[in-house]
Known about the structure:
This protein has helices spanning 35-45, 76-81, 113-123, 129-134, 138-148, 152-184, 186-198, 206-217, 219-233, 242-255, 261-290, 297-315, 320-335, 337-386, 427-430, 433-451, 467-480, 493-496, 523-535, 541-550; strands at residues 2-10, 13-19, 24-28, 62-69, 89-96, 102-106, 109-111, 124-127, 393-405, 408-417, 425-426, 455-459, 485-489, 501-508, 515-520. By secondary structure, the protein is of the alpha/beta class. A 6-stranded antiparallel β-sheet has the order 2-1-4-5-6-7, covered by helices on one side.
Amino acid sequence: MLHSLYIQNFALIEKVTLDFSKGFTVITGETGSGKSILLGALHLILGDRADYSVIRNKEEKTVVEAVFKIQNFDLDAFFSEQELDFNEETIVRREISAQGKSRAFINDTPVQLSVLKELAEKLIHIHSQHHTIDLKNMEFQMELLDVLGDTFSLKNEFNTLFTTYKSTRIQLNKKEEILKKSLLNADYVAFQLDELEKLELMTTNFQDIDNELKAIENSEDIKLGFSLLIDQLTDEGGATNALNQLIQVKSRLDKIVGMYPQLDTLSKRFKETYLELLDIGQEAMSNLDDLDVNPAQKQILTTKIDLLNTALRKHNVINQSELLEIYTNLSKSQFSVEELEIDIAALKNTLRLLEVELTEKAEVLHTTRVSRSLTIQNQLIELLTELKLPHTQIVFDLAKTEKFSVNGFTEMKLLFSPNKGMIPLPIERAASGGELSRVMLAFQYLVSAKKQLPTLIFDEIDTGVSGEVAQKIGNILHKMGDYMQIFAITHLPQVAGKGQNHLKVTKSHETEITTTEVINLSQKERIEEIARLMSGDNINKAAIENAKALMN
Length: 552
């Protein structure tokens, strides 16, 4: 369960620490007081992406920290898998800064947002108003049915296999398309291959050819370079060349060895350099002797480079490596038709086997859904009767399709009728806003018991209802609070009166900056707040007595 929440520098909240209890907690406050801010802070804990506009003071970071008591929720394996320390009181923290940095921590260990989200989904769920709208969506309806009918694992098995099936189908389509193009373009591919084969890309290094061509074109300059080195660093350069001058320096240095340590070091380095220069001179002589420039070769090399450049431009690539890749691909497209046909036959066989297995699983899934939907319908009708919809009909209309989809063979419509003598229609057409809220609450009641979530937060689940219906909703939420932690943001006194704990969100204008505060109300303050919800700011004795009556 959620034990405490610390919020700092978030929207209108400067700093607040909230301690929570078990059971059913209501949250009230004027419209615009900041109840949505409280939810926004909790969404950060749930791993949602950071909205940097909520940072109150841009000079400071925003911090939201929640403490969860998790000792009874079998989370040891998750902590072990993520290499996190397991504590019965686990601390989850988000920090965001105006510089665009967002960090997440579990028990002071930095974690990826995906890890935080995975843990939070096991601990807390926020039911916002848009979830009620989701009730009109067939996929959401199907998900509710699978959760309540314990067919979720069957559906996951089917979906895993179905994903493989779709992936195999995509592979088959791609290979069939490649084969089709290969057959259509066979002549053109052969022509392109012939052109590229003449370049002998596999055995010819065009960089070496380019270097050789440059050497021929610059042969005189190259010879001059070698000659300069030979003239200065060999005996052939005469008495005034650099070598003879270095010999004289060496001779003088040999005579004063041992006279001064630093000079000895420099003398040693000079001798090493002298030997290196001698070697350079000899190598230059060897290279000059080996330099065989054949001007007639120039035309041959130029022709090869021109052919390469023409091919590069034609295929819109920039080097031999990319051209070789094109050649390889063209070769595959020409010579792999038989391989493609073998692969296509194998993929078709795989698809046939997958279709058989998928059909079996889809049959089991559909049959199980149909059989278990009746029990769920009765449970929902019982709850909706308690919520002042005594003549409700709610039907999972499950039709079997000819071809399987992501939902197997099942196509579903959630049918609803709130009154006697009315044929059930798709719920999106038949239910009012207040009726949708009650149906959604009934679903959540059943789902929360099934999933055993530690904490569930309802954001105005009582929208569109009032009076006795609101009181019934309060009773349901109170009952849910017997086995889990429930929060409900509400404007209705009938719901607020059923809470075991009560938080009030207020907006203060006492300083230059508007702030939001969250107050944990005492019993006396609760009575006054519920009376205010009934009669407005002018609280009279009758409102107080009515508030006490609502609270029993």
